[in-house]
C-alpha cells in the first residue's frame, strides 16, 4: 500500500517548512490552528486542521499513548473508522504493532526520517502514514523520499519460457511515466492478473534508439498492469495522472505517475512461460528489440532474443478480479 506523508506545521508563516513539505510529496499538512487558507496560498494542498479538508479531532484524531487505556481508546476509534495518529512519549513501536491488528488507518507521529522508515515497515505491512514533527528541512526531504518510495513489495518467481509466437498487428500501450527507472526495474503486466511478467523499462540504448528510462512499453490493450493497493487496470484504461507500480528485480515496488499512455498499432508476440510449480504466465508484447523482459539477476532480455528455456521474472497469484479489485471466485483464464 502506498504510504502517506503528513507534515506537522506549527507556524503557517514558516514558508521554508511548508515549501519543503510540498516539494517532498506531502499528502497533507497538519495545522494546530485554522490557518488552511494561508498555506493554500502557496500551493494546492490538503490540510488536516480545525478548518481543513479533513477535520482535526473528527476525521483525524491524535491519541497520545501513555498507558493501556490510551491504547484501548485508539483501538476503539479505529473500529469506528477514524484515522488515528498515534503519539508516544518515548517513540516505541509496540503500541503501533498492537494497533495495526485492530485497523488499517493507523498513522505514526515521528520526529525524523529514521523513525518514519521504521514506522512504514512495521510488521512488513507498516502504518498507513506518518506525521512528521520537525522544522528541519533536510529531515522533511529525507522522510519524503523514504515514504514516497515505499510501495508494495511482492515475491517474484522464476519462470521458464515455453513459447514465443509472432502475431500480426495489434493495439499496444506504451506507458511514459514521470519517473526515471534504472536497470532491473519495470512494470508487472500480463494477459491475466494471476500471472504477470516484469516488463523492463527502456533503460538500454543501442546504435539506433536512445534510452528512454521513463518508459515501459507495456503490451497489448487487453493486458493487466499492477497498481497500488493490490489493484489492476487494463492497459487500455491507463491515462495521464494515474498511479502505477514500478518494481525492481528484487520485488521492491514504488509508485510512479503516468505522464501519458500511447496506443499504437504494432506487430506483436505471444509469450508464454511456466514456473517450477506449474503456474502459467502469458503476455502479448511488441515484436521489437527494445522490448525486454527481466532475468532473475535484473538483466534485461530482449523479446526478439527469447528462446524456450530462458528464465525470466514473473509474479503470480490466484485468479479473480472485479473492476480491478481482488475477489474470491472460481475462474479459469486461457
From TrEMBL:
User: From which domain of life does this come?
Assistant: Bacteria
| A Pfam family recorded for this sequence | DHQS
Q: Does the keyword Nucleotide-binding apply?
A: no
Q: Which UniProt keywords apply?
A: Amino-acid biosynthesis, Aromatic amino acid biosynthesis, NAD, Oxidoreductase
Question: Could you say which protein family the record assigns here?
Answer: Belongs to the archaeal-type DHQ synthase family.
Q: Which HAMAP family match?
A: Arch_DHQ_synthase (MF_01244)
Protein name per UniProt: 3-dehydroquinate synthase homolog
Question: Which species is this record about?
Answer: Desulfurobacterium thermolithotrophum (strain DSM 11699 / BSA)
Amino acid at each position: 500500500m502506498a504510504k502517506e506523508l503528513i507534515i506537522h506545521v506549527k507556524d503557517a508563516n514558516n514558508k521554508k517548512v511548508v515549501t519543503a513539505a510540498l516539494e517532498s510529496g506531502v499528502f497533507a499538512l497538519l495545522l494546530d490552528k485554522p490557518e488552511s487558507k494561508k498555506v493554500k496560498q502557496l500551493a494546492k494542498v490538503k490540510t488536516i486542521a480545525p478548518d481543513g479538508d479533513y477535520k482535526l479531532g473528527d476525521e483525524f484524531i491524535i491519541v497520545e499513548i501513555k498507558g493501556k487505556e490510551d491504547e484501548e481508546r485508539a483501538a476503539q476509534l479505529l473500529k469506528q473508522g477514524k484515522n488515528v495518529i498515534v503519539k508516544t512519549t518515548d517513540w516505541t513501536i509496540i503500541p503501533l504493532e498492537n494497533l495495526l491488528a485492530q485497523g488499517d488507518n493507523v498513522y505514526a507521529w515521528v520526529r525524523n526520517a529514521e523513525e518514519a522508515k521504521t514506522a512504514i515497515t512495521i510488521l512488513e505491512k507498516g502504518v498507513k502514514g506518518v506525521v512528521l514533527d520537525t522544522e528541519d528541512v533536510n529531515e522533511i526531504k529525507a522522510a519524503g523520499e523514504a515514504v514516497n518510495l515505499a510501495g508494495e513489495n511482492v515475491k517474484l518467481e522464476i519462470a521458464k519460457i515455453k513459447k514465443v509466437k509472432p502475431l500480426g498487428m495489434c493495439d499496444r500501450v506504451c506507458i511514459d511515466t514521470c519517473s526515471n527507472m534504472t536497470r532491473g526495474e519495470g512494470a508487472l503486466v500480463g494477459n491475466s492478473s494471476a500471472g504477470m511478467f516484469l516488463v523492463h523499462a527502456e533503460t538500454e540504448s543501442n546504435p539506433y534508439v536512445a534510452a528512454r528510462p521513463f518508459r515501459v512499453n507495456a503490451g497489448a490493450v487487453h493486458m493487466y498492469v499492477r497498481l497500488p493497493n493490490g489493484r489492476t487496470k487494463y492497459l487500455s484504461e491507463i491515462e495521464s495522472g494515474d498511479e502505477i507500480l514500478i518494481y525492481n528485480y528484487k520485488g521492491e515496488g514504488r509508485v510512479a505517475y503516468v505522464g501519458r499512455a500511447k496506443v499504437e498499432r504494432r506487430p506483436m508476440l505471444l509469450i508464454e512461460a511456466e514456473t517450477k510449480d506449474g503456474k502459467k504466465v502469458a503476455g502479448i508484447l511488441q515484436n521489437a528489440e527494445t522490448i525486454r523482459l527481466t532475468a532473475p539477476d535484473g538483466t534485461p532480455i530482449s523479446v526478439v532474443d527469447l528462446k524456450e528455456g530462458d528464465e525470466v521474472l514473473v509474479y503470480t497469484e490466484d485468479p479473480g478480479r472485479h473492476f480491478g479489485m481482488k475477489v474470491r471466485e472460481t475462474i479459469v483464464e486461457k
